[in-house]
Amino acid sequence: MNGISEATHMVFNDAKDMDWQGNRKNREKFVYDSGCISCHQTILDVNSSNQNINDMHKLYAVSIQNKDKKLSCVSCHKTVGHKNLGKILYEIKHPPVGDWGDEIKK
């Protein structure tokens, strides 16, 4: 259903008018762990050389056992689905001034 909703939204609305930052705050309502886990099945295995990653994935494993689930994949992986979204949004709000290539030619 999300794909149909997104396609419909993009046909009838301009992406420039979307509240991207506001939507990022609510990302846990739109990005489902099942989509992540379908590809990353071994994520709950302690297999990283980075102990911090192992510790966080253990916390996630504990949290999904609770009914009041507090952690989701996007709790930590904030940019999943939209690579460099923060940078893109910043550049839209603060566009680069000129082209540095012009300075080199002078």
How is this structure best described in words?
With 106 residues, this protein is mostly helical. It has a domain at 27-93. The chain is built from seven helices and no strands. The longest helix is centred in the middle third of the chain and has 15 residues, at 51-65. The N and C termini lie far apart (54 Å).
Question: How would you sum up this structure in a few lines?
Answer:
GO terms for molecular function: metal ion binding. InterPro entries: Multihaem_cyt_sf, NapC/NirT_cyt_c_N, NapC/NirT_cytc_sf. By secondary structure, the protein is an all-alpha fold.
As residue ranges, the low-confidence spans are: none
Structural class: mainly alpha
- What average pLDDT do the residues reach? 77
What is the multimeric organization of the chains shown?
single chain
Rg on CA atoms, Å: 19 Å
Question: What is the helix content?
Answer: 40-55%
Overall outline: extended
Summarize the main sheet: none
Number of extended strands: 0
Give the SSE order as H and E letters: HHHHHHH
Task: Estimate what percentage of residues fall within beta strands.
Answer: under 5%
Supply the number of helical segments.
7
End-to-end separation in angstroms reads 54 Å
Write the layout of secondary structure elements.
Elements: H1 2-12, H2 20-25, H3 33-37, H4 51-65, H5 73-76, H6 85-93, H7 100-105
Keywords: Electron transport, Heme, Iron, Metal-binding, Transport
InterPro entries: Multihaem_cyt_sf (IPR036280), NapC/NirT_cyt_c_N (IPR005126), NapC/NirT_cytc_sf (IPR038266)
Pfam family, one: Cytochrom_NNT
